[in-house]
Amino acid sequence: MISLLRKWRRHLHQFPELSFCEYETTAYIINQVKDLPGITIETGKNEIGIDTGVLVTIGNGRKPIIGLRADIDALPIQELNQHSYCSSFDGVMHACGHDGHTAMLIGAIYRLSELYEKDFLNGTVKCLFQPAEETEDQFGKTGAQYVLESSALDDVESIIALHLDPEIPLGEVKLKEGVVMANVDTFQITVRGTGGHGAYPEQTIDPIWISSLMLPALYSMTSRKLSASDPFVCSVCQLNGGTSTNVIPNTVTLGGTIRTYSDHARMIISKELKSLVNSFTHLGASIEIMVHHGEPALVNDRDMVAILKESIQIVYPDMRIHNQTYGMGGEDFSHFAQVIPGAMMFLGAGIIDVNTSLHQASFDFDEQSLVYGMETLVHSVLLRLRGDQHA
Question: Which residues bind Mn(2+) (predicted)?
Answer without folding.
Answer: 96, 98, 134, 163, 359
